[in-house]
Amino acid sequence: MSHEAPIRVAGPALPEVRMHLHTPSDPGVGVVVESRVCTARKAAGFVRHLAIDVSRTRLAANFRVGQSFGVIPPGLDEHGKTHKVRLYSIACPTAGEDGRGQVVSTTVKRTIDEHWESHRLFLGVASNWLCDLREGDEVPVTGPSGKRFLLPADPGAHDYLFFATGTGIAPFRGMILELLAAGVPSRVVLVMGVAYETDLLYDAELDALAASSGGRFTYLRALSRQPQADGGPPMYVQDRLRTHGDLLGPMLGSDRTLVYICGVAGMELGILQAMARTLDPPALEAFLRVDSGAGEPEGWTRRMIHREVAPTRRVFMEVY
Ligand SMILES: Cc1cc2nc3c(=O)[nH]c(=O)nc-3n(C[C@H](O)[C@H](O)[C@H](O)COP(=O)(O)OP(=O)(O)OC[C@H]3O[C@@H](n4cnc5c(N)ncnc54)[C@H](O)[C@@H]3O)c2cc1C
Fold first, then answer.
1. Would you tell me which CATH number, out of the four given (3.20.20.100, 3.30.70.1520, 3.40.50.80, 3.40.50.2300), belongs to the domain 155-319?
2. Which pLDDT value is given to residue 7?
3. 194 pLDDT more than 70
């Protein structure tokens, strides 16, 4: 393996954040104030937008868009211990759903699985518990957590290319709302990837935001298992670098642009490979340091990320 002298690419200054104000041994008590489906009614998966009043907790006015918070489901795990914390991305701006940082929101997908060995249906503990909650129900919360997947301290100094898959849309919903409300001159492009059109999350809201943004926000969908609305073939988020090269090429050639990736683990590899295939070397170097021993992008693996293929500080990734 060859590790060459890194090309230093400066990242933006990030804001200070508060973290771990509630720990698993000292959770705060939030109260559900809203739970609504955020897919189309006929979606294959079940995803809810959940808003939680945290005014009685230390999270109140102490979280930032891009951070996550933790949830502790009630009951005990199979070892008789209290359940571990599960993290959920904050889906609202720093000012919360209420404008005062008292109501935090997230986007929860029910984990539903069939375990091959036992041949039994498995319902993820925290996600299904959260999605079953009704207005007025209490939620033990921890956090906030995360100090890197943030908007920069000077948001207007940058343009943004957001890649989301599935519930990875959560932080971008908050960031887009925050950037548009701030009135900064930034260009924002979101590429949202799901399998089918019915799986799109916050679709009408994002469409409305794009329509009212005066051209500042562009919303692109990428459907991986059905044709696109314009008849184009099924595609992944990274394929938009090719289909929308006129828009995204110049954007990625600008030193204002930051790239954010959030969603299903593995998505980052395809995006980095596509950037390597489509960008000129100087543009690519701003986002990715590629060792000469890394070989062709087609042969890259996830294990090479942060090693032979290292995103610079202009790339922000949160995959799970
Ligand atoms: C930074 C971060 C942000 C996140 N943000 C979000 C978000 O915004 N929205 C969201 O929906 N999720 C998010 N997640 C994921 C979330 O934290 C949970 O992991 C997810 O909701 C599943 O939790 P669960 O308790 O429902 O499932 P779990 O009960 O924890 O099960 C998880 C998986 O383990 C498998 N499993 C469990 N037991 C067995 C077994 N005995 N044999 C085989 N397999 C088993 C299950 O089948 C399932 O696939 C985020 C994660 C991170 C790290």
1. 3.40.50.80
2. 55
3. yes
How does residue 41 score in pLDDT terms, banded at 50, 70 and 90? confident
| Local structure of 37: helix, strand or coil | strand
CA of 250 to the centre of ligand 1 (A): 37
Residue 122 alpha carbon, nearest atom of ligand 1: 47
Side-chain-side CA neighbours of residue 52 (13 Å): 33
Q: How far is the CA of 143 from the centre of ligand 1 (A)?
A: 17
**Distance from the CA of 127 to the center of ligand 1, in angstroms?**
7
CB 145, CB 128: distance < 8 Å:
no
pTM above 0.90, yes or no: yes
Domain ranges of the chain: 28-145, 155-319
Cα(45) to ligand 1 centroid in Å equals 14
Composition of the chain by helix, strand, coil, percent to 5: 25, 30, 45
Residue 47 alpha carbon, nearest atom of ligand 1: 11
- 6 CB burial (10 A radius; 0-12, 13-18, 19+): exposed
Nearest to 66 by CA among 147, 123, 3, 8: 147
CATH number of 28-145: 2.40.30.10
Q: Residue 118 CA: which ligand 1 atom is closest?
A: 42
Mean pLDDT for the stretch of residues 43-47: 94
Nearest to 314 by CA among 66, 90, 14, 16: 14
In testing the pocket of ligand 1, which one of 19, 69, 89 has its CB within 8 Å of the most ligand atoms? 89
Say if ligand 1 is within 6 A of residue 125 CB.
yes
Strand partners, 159: 257
Is the minimum distance from the CB of 283 to ligand 1 under 6 angstroms? no
